[in-house]
Amino acid sequence: MNHFKLTNETKVFYNTTLYRIEATVDIVSIGVKKGDKGGFIEKESNLHDQAWVFGDARVFGDACVSDNARVFGNAQVYGDARVFGDACVSDNAQVFGNACVSDNAWVFGNACVSDNAWVFGNARVSDNAQVYGDARVFGDARVYGDAHIDCASAILWITLGGFYTATITKKLIFIGCQKFTKKQILKISKKDAINKGLPKEFADRYRAMIIAAMKLVK
Predict the structure, then answer these.
(1) What is the CATH number of domain 4-149?
(2) CB 41 within 8 A of CB 10
(3) Contact 84/104 with Cβ under 8 angstroms?
(4) 191 Cβ partners below 8 Å, 6+ apart?
(5) Tens digit of pLDDT for each residue in 112-162?
(6) Contact 167/185 with Cβ under 8 angstroms?
(7) CB neighbour burial string for 22-56, b if at least 16 within 10 angstroms, e if fewer
(8) Domain with CATH 2.160.10 in the chain
(9) Residue 145: its pLDDT value, please?
(10) pTM for this one?
């Protein structure tokens, strides 16, 4: 039995009629009560299990949101995309094609995940970032800004001393909220690291770890 029903409130989007949903039972895990209105879907097969679509978010085509996944804001999930586990897609983010977002991953801002890309684990994709092709973003990876991650841009996440995280792509390295090119990483001194708010050990042990990891991302 579905935990929702399609209402008579509709919206035509990309020449497709979408229906606002209404909860038919309480969904305690996400704070939805029986009778609460949700977002828009094209058909019942777009939504399964305890998953929910909020606000003006849209799920259509053969896309499926399942398990405890949530879609918020003006986000769109369409095509053959899958959002499952405890994953979230929010704001103006889009997930489409054959893309998957799962586990505790979160795609938000104006980010796009498309083609055969997969974002999973505790990964975050935000801002205007794009993940596409056969890319995999996972672990505690953070992809943000105007970053583009495709099938030729492998990604690796490492922990620096238990306090800092480094997300390493083919062209860029993200440490905390800062972005560096490979050339910049190679030139950073201990003094530079401290001035940038990075760990003082960065110029020694941490930089060596990142350089070694960079060789794995080709």
Answers:
(1) 2.160.10
(2) no
(3) no
(4) none
(5) 999 999 999 888 999 998 888 888 888 777 888 777 777 555 666 666 555
(6) no
(7) ebeeebeeeebeeeeebbbbbeeebbeebbbbbee
(8) 4-149
(9) 79
(10) 0.76
